[in-house]
Each structure stands twice: as C-alpha cells, then as structure tokens.
Amino acid sequence: MNSPPRIAPDTLASRLPHVTPQTLALHNALHRPRHALTLPTRSGSSAKPARLCLLGEQADITREVACPLHIGDETLVVTTSWRTLEVLGAHPGRRRPLASVDGELAALWLEALWQPWLAPLEAALDCDIRLAPLAPPASAMATAQGQAGDAADTARANSVTLALAYTLGTTSYPLALALTLSAPLAERLRPLFEARFPPCPAPAQALPVTARVNAGQQWLTLAEWRSLDPGDVVLLELPYAEPDTLAVSIAGRCAAATPTADGVRLLAPPRVPAGGHPTTRPAPHQRDQEAAVMTQPPVDSPRDDTDTQPDVDNFDGLAVALTCELGRLTLTLGELRELGQGSVLPLARRPERAVDLMVNGQRMGQGRLVMIGDDLGVQIERLALDAQSPDAQAPDA
User: Fold this and answer.
1) What's the pLDDT score for residue 397?
2) Among 3.90.1150.10, 3.30.160.390, 2.30.330.10, 2.60.40.640, what is the CATH number of 208-273+281-296+314-383?
3) pLDDT of res. 43
4) Are the CB atoms for 211 and 347 separated by under 8 Å?
5) Cβ 113 vs Cβ 97: under 8 Å
6) Residue 156 burial (10 A CB sphere; 0-12, 13-18, 19+)
C-alpha cells in the first residue's frame, strides 16, 4: 500500500482532518447515526443494564489509558479515562483502583469481568479475544501498529476510530471511550456492527422542500411558444379529470388539492418516491420531437450545406412544457411529514387571479385561467421571450 502523501506545513490541507480514499466508504458506514446497543449482563448478576451509543467524530474523549484487545491476529485498542475504566471494571469483590494495579493483572481482571460481552463476539468471529496489559495510549497504539516510519504512518492513516458512550442504568452522565482498529478488522466487524448497531437515520426535520401548486400544463413547440401574444388562449392539459382540482407537486410527485379561501386543501397526502428522485420525464411526443429536431432539418427550410447563416430557427420543433403555477411555498421536511388529507397549504393568490407561466422552472410571463367550454385554458397577459424581461425570473417562494 502506498504511503500517505507528504503535506507541506502551513497549508489548508495540513490543518484539515484526513480520511484516506481506501477507507472513505467504511468511514461513512461506521459513522452513521445508529440505535443504542444494550449490553448483556452476567448470569445471575443484579447489575443494571448498560448501553453503548455511537458518538460524533468530534466527541471529547479523555485518553489516559489504553486497553488493547487481541482479536485473532488483529488488535483493537480501547482508549478512555481511568474514571471510565473504573466503571467498566466495577465489581463488589475488587478492593483496589485499577490505576494502582499492575497492567497485566488489571487486564486479566477486566477480561474475566467482560466475558458476557466478549463470548458472543468470539463465537461470531470464531476466534479468541484476549486483553493485553493496560498501557499508555501512545505506547499501545504503536504496539498495535507494530511498524515504524512510513509504514506506521500508512497504518495510522488507514485505521478507523469510533467514539462510544457507555451508560449504566438510568445514569444521565455517559462515559466516553474510543475504539481504534485497522481497516481490515473494521471490515470484518462491520456485519456485526450493522446487526447490533442498526442505523437510525437523522430525521432532518429542518430540510427545506418546495411545494408547487399547478393548475395544468401544455406541451408546445418552440415555434408555437414564440408565436404567442398577449390575449392568446392556450388549452391546458389538466392534472386530474375535474377542472377545479389542482396538483400540488413535491419532489416530482403530485397530490390532488382543491382551492379554498385561504389556499388549497389536500385531497390526499403527498407521497414521495422511495428512491427520492423526481419521476417527471418528458412526454413521449416531446422525446420524439427532440429526436426529430436532432435528425431532420426543418420542413420549411431547404437544406443547404453551403448556407453560412446561423441556424437560429433550427430548434422551432423543440418541445416546451408550459405550466400554469398558482404559487409555491417552502415547507420543512417536518411540516411535510405532518401533511395529510384535509391539510390546507396557504397561498397568497386565488386561482381566478393571475397565474405564473413557467417554462423550465423560470417564470416567463403571467396569464389568467379561463374556461373554454368545459375545458380549462390560460389567457396570456404578459409574456417574456428573453431573459432580459422582468418576467423572466424565478418566482417568489
């Protein structure tokens, strides 16, 4: 394995924490938010249940003593404070503090005391787990890496460190400890880690989500769009069969809604696709027209290979989606989760008033909804065909 690159001092790179590319996926997997692990108690013991919780990478951990665990041919180093180790090694029969005991004797005591935790791990990994004598953290880490010079730097760069909080019973003061292990050992332990520490995704309640309220849309060719003038009327394709039913679009999915005096009332809760990606795609005829534009010259322009004029109008057959938007608002993910049938989303604009004419996410003009017999349409009031017009801008939230 290559040595880590030398970084000049007094540079930004020298002041940033480093994660090697080889362990990036492993690092991210092990540092996801997770549920707590309840540790088994000794048979016949009346000790209170203990739990381990994953802490953030920047957790403040006092590192006064190290406890190396030999797992087969690999070594995992637990570093923590003497106070935490005293709690982890508490037993009614112990009379002396661990800090005053020989390191090898203290390791034998802890190994016997931790057997209810170590035995299931030995069975799952099919190997012996033994505690090495307690030592200062720097000495234990150097021994675990067992290398010097560049090789030691590489081993240190490819190691993985996890910060854990140990909570005993109902105590409100968790005790912090760190586990440092090599990337191969972390990969070996990862299936057990995933099973015993199941992921607990953060709720992300404050994540902003945009909801758009649409009355309908129509596919036009670019030539048709460019030919529109104020006063012209465009027939709309409705999102639902009833003309007075609007579409609330969130993350590419729609929910039916009806207008009210204060906004729109949802007829069903919005459902976001499991993959999280918008499912809106160009209509089939749009893809056909786009393909035609790319493969055929315009029918009203004879092909001339010697023509040096710029092909400004060669995109007249391009499909353009014209959407009539009543308004949009920004919700948090927490608010989105609370939406259900009957929820009302406030809008500052009534459907019978002006609607924004949206093309490719930009406001390109304004219009007014009109009835064309039993069908819904929009009458153009203002229109922008270039980006210099004040109408050609993103709409207000």
Assistant:
1) 42
2) 2.30.330.10
3) 58
4) no
5) no
6) middle
Query: How do 175-182 and 319-332 pair as beta strands?
Result: unpaired
Per-residue tokens: 317: 């057959």
User: What pLDDT is recorded for position 290?
Assistant: 40
Of 277, 258, 364, 270, whose CA–CA distance to 321 is shortest? Answer: 364
Residue holding tokens 């787990």?
129
**Residue 225 identity (one-letter amino acid):** W
DSSP H or E run through 67: strand 65-71
Which DSSP letter does residue 304 get?
A: -
Give the fold, CATH level 3, of 12-196: Chemotaxis protein chec (3.40.1550)
Neighbours of 160 (CB within 10 A): 22
Q: Are 77 and 141 in contact (CB under 8 A)?
A: yes
Q: What is the DSSP letter of 147?
A: -
What number of residues does the chain have? Answer: 397
Per-10-residue mean pLDDT for the chain, 397 residues long? 55 71 80 84 65 82 93 93 91 88 93 92 94 91 64 60 80 81 90 88 86 92 91 92 86 85 87 51 41 38 47 76 92 89 87 85 91 91 70 51
Angle at Cα 141 formed by Cα 152 and Cα 85, nearest 5°?
A: 165
Residue 272, pLDDT score: 60
The angle subtended at Cα 275 by Cα 272 and Cα 277, nearest 5°, is 70
